[in-house]
Amino acid sequence: MSAVYDCSDPDARADGLAAAAGAVRSSRLVVLPTDTVYGIGADAFDSGAVRSLLHAKNRGPDMPVGVLVGSWSTVDGLVLGVPPQARALMEAFWPGDLSLVLPHAPSLQWDLGTTRGTVMLRMPLHPVALELLREVGPMAVSSANVSGRPPAATAQEAVDQLGDSVSVYLDGGPTGDPVPSTIVDLTGDEPALLREGAVSADEVAEVLGTR
């Protein structure tokens, strides 16, 4: 049976964060608010939980899951190295609506789907998400919806789509317009804009000095 916690109430928020942390550590799924849309998340290092996440979304491993982090320093342990361009973008837009694709550290034991040795990382600008991430560590997170249906902009929309496949729903209120994050690929010789979302291509180019 799923539980929904109203994070506008301080006591319910504290209870919800504790329940969500327990669920993540027990290989179960949670829904959390972010600064873009609601996300469905699991322990990034728990391959079984990540498979459950993909199953809940009716999605295959050909569409790998990104990873949310609670701090800049977390990234250093997840990737082969943080190039200057990545550091500049993190300083400009994190926490916020920019996702970075980097080569992941080969020593990491995780299975996020068919990633070809890369990982997509983001630090969200939402207090509930950040508090949970700082408690449990990196989480594999995808939009809280069944594939082919609109991303959830409220906790109730996530409940309606995902139901009891998720143990804990953290209700942080409506997210506003469901605009996805911008994705920049830094695995090649030159940065590549894979998706323009909340951060504009011009803003990215200005930071990278490519305008």
UniProtKB/TrEMBL annotation:
Q: What is its main location?
A: cytoplasm
Q: Which Gene Ontology cellular component terms are annotated?
A: cytoplasm
Its subcellular locations are: Cytoplasm
Q: Which reaction does it catalyse?
A: L-threonine + hydrogencarbonate + ATP = L-threonylcarbamoyladenylate + diphosphate + H2O
User: Which Gene Ontology biological process is one annotated for this entry?
Assistant: tRNA processing
InterPro entries per the record?
DHBP_synth_RibB-like_a/b_dom (IPR017945), Sua5-like_dom (IPR006070), TC-AMP_synthase_SUA5 (IPR050156)
Molecular functions per Gene Ontology: ATP binding; double-stranded RNA binding; L-threonylcarbamoyladenylate synthase; tRNA binding
Q: Does the keyword Metal-binding apply?
A: no
Instruction: Name the top EC class.
Output: transferase
Q: For the YrdC-like domain, which residue ranges apply? A: 14-199
Record key words, sorted: ATP-binding, Cytoplasm, Nucleotide-binding, Nucleotidyltransferase, Transferase, tRNA processing
Keyword set includes tRNA processing:
yes
Which Enzyme Commission number(s) are on file for it?
2.7.7.87
Q: Name any one Pfam family assigned in the record.
A: Sua5_yciO_yrdC
Recorded hits in PANTHER family, A to Z, give:
SUA5, THREONYLCARBAMOYL-AMP SYNTHASE
Family, according to the entry, reads as follows: Belongs to the SUA5 family.
Protein name (record): L-threonylcarbamoyladenylate synthase
